[in-house]
Specification:
3 helices, 84% helix, mainly alpha, 79 residues
């Protein structure tokens, strides 16, 4: 059962990252990357690495998302 759940999460992470590359709007890409990083943190937790999972959730989904959103907000959009 754990193997099926882990495989579903791995496919989900791959799809999140693939969609983030394909999407045109940068803010949507950042949100999708944050979702992928959160799913990756869940994978680390399932693999019994809670310290890595906590770091991935805090840095990958938290800090980097805030920094990227801040950087995108400081740029001008070209329509």
């Amino acid at each position: 059962m754990e193997s099926i759940f882990l495989n579903i999460l791995l496919v989900l992470v791959f799809l999140f990252y693939l969609i983030a590359v394909k999407v045109k709007d940068l803010l949507y890409a950042i949100i999708i990357l944050a979702a992928g990083n959160t799913a990756l943190a869940v994978i680390f937790y399932v693999l019994q690495a809670p310290d890595i999972a906590l770091t991935q959730a805090a840095v990958g989904a938290g800090v980097s998302t805030v920094l990227l959103v801040n950087a995108v907000n400081k740029t001008r959009r070209k329509e």
